[in-house]
Write a structure and sequence with these properties.
This protein is α/β, with parallel strands linked by helices. Helices cover 38% and strands 18% of the residues. The longest helix has 37 residues.
Length: 361
């Protein structure tokens, strides 16, 4: 996949309340990937009213880069999730159009792995989330595993970095072992030399050599210990570095903007529905192009200067201005206020992120 691609993560989760609660907690732990512009997410609760839910799920599943299959007894018991969505996900995994990652929510018969061979299983150690205390440790392990896959899909230098990290681990392991050997040998030699009388040391030049050897051993041990405890020394900078929250190159302004209005009808927030142009009210003009209700993760263009705000109510002072022609990534679309049944229109807002090097041009 191209390094500029924003990874789309699809949640394949059963309809049970317990599984849905865990899915929401997992999504919270993956928020950093979203704020860094690495990924967007989609799940069934994002389906707009009036839309064909099966068609929406199928469309978003087939366009996903990473498919998170949340394994539980409820998921296995669901014919739709196990025999339809699960099989479709594995077909895409084998075709290498998507990457399937299984998330083990609760203990189940290990025979489930037959349906998902050769896929990554999280949390670490294939230990179900419900067996972790607290659960946050499990979710942190899962988030780390998903980040690795997302970086593999977006970073062309991922495998080089992986080899370097592996080599660094080996050096640290060997260094620690060498330190223990040096300290032991140095201690034994030092004790032997200074247990002899001063007259004996003067008559034997060998002892002078041994004393120097002890110094070298001790200094060498200290040096290796320093290197092993400071793994950053072994890092080799690459042209494409790992995204960090504080990096100005990888983090862009995120906030809320006005995007336009739609007719107050059933399914009015449906993706692809046209934003209305009202010549008599220029303030209601669509602010984005294309002038339609965008899908989460879509790239849009600003049509005219618009305020970027940090609150979804669009009140308060702007945190910045977006200029005409700027590219944005849509994170979420909502109605600006509660829908009034007597109003012919619904005002829409969107949470957006300014486009950066991770956006498709």
């Amino acid at each position: 996949m191209p390094a500029t691609k924003v990874v789309k993560v699809f949640y394949c989760c059963s309809d049970s309340a317990q599984d849905e609660e865990m899915r929401q907690k997992l999504e919270n732990h993956l928020s950093l990937l979203k704020w860094e512009g690495v990924s967007t997410t989609w799940h069934r609760r994002m389906i707009s009213p009036g839309k064909d839910w099966k068609s929406e799920i199928d469309t978003n599943l087939k366009t996903a880069d990473i498919i998170l299959v949340l394994i539980s007894s409820d998921f296995i018991n669901s014919d739709y999730h196990w025999n339809i969505l699960g099989k479709q996900a594995m077909e895409q995994h084998r075709a290498k159009t998507s990457r399937v990652i299984t998330i083990l929510l609760s203990p189940v018969d290990n025979y489930w792995k037959v349906a998902f061979p050769n896929v990554k299983v999280l949390p670490k150690g294939e230990r179900p989330i419900t067996e972790w205390r607290p659960y946050n440790k499990a979710f942190a392990s899962i988030a780390t595993g998903i980040r690795e896959v997302a970086e593999e899909l977006t970073d062309s230098t991922y495998f080089i970095k992986k080899v370097l990290r592996w080599l660094r681990s080996i050096v640290i392991l060997v260094g620690n072992a060498a330190v223990n050997v040096f300290i032991y040998v140095g201690t034994v030699t030092f004790s032997y030399l200074f247990s002899r009388s001063a007259r004996f040391r003067k008559r034997n030049r060998v002892n002078k050599i041994s004393t120097g050897l002890v110094v070298v051993i001790i200094v060498g041990g200290i040096f290796i210990r320093f290197v092993s405890l400071s793994p950053d020394i072994l890092k080799i900078p690459l042209s494409a570095s790992k995204p960090t929250v504080n990096s100005a190159k990888t983090v862009s302004s995120t906030g809320w903007i006005w995007i336009g209005i739609v007719k107050n009808t059933s399914g009015s927030l449906s993706v692809g529905k046209s934003l209305i142009l009202q010549p008599a009210n220029p303030k209601y003009f669509p602010s984005i192009s294309p002038a339609v209700v965008p899908l989460s993760g879509a790239i849009v263009t600003v049509k005219y200067e618009v305020n970027l705000r940090n609150e979804n109510s669009l009140s308060g002072q702007p945190i910045g201005k977006l200029k005409k022609g700027e590219k944005l990534v849509i994170l979420k679309v909502e109605s600006l206020r509660n829908i009034n049944k007597n109003s012919p229109y619904i005002q829409l807002r969107a949470q957006v992120r300014k486009c950066n090097s991770t956006c498709n041009k």
